[in-house]
Amino acid sequence: MARALLIHNPAAARTKDRTVESICSVFTSAGWTIEAPGTEHPDDALRIADQGVTAGVDVLAIYGGDGTVHNVAGRVGDKVPLGLIPGGTGNLLAGNLRVPRNPAKAARAIVDGKPKHIDLGRLTSNGDVKYFTVACGAGFDAEMMAGTSGRSKRRWGMGAYIATAWQVLGRHRSVDYQITVDGKEYEFEAASVLVANCREIIPPFLRLRDGISPDDGVLDVVVLNASGLLETVTVLWQLFIRSVGDDRRVRHIPGRVVKVESSEPRPVQLDGEAVGMTPFTADVTPGGIRIMLPDG
Question: Are the C-beta atoms of residues 262 and 138 closer than 8 Å to each other?
Answer without folding.
Answer: yes
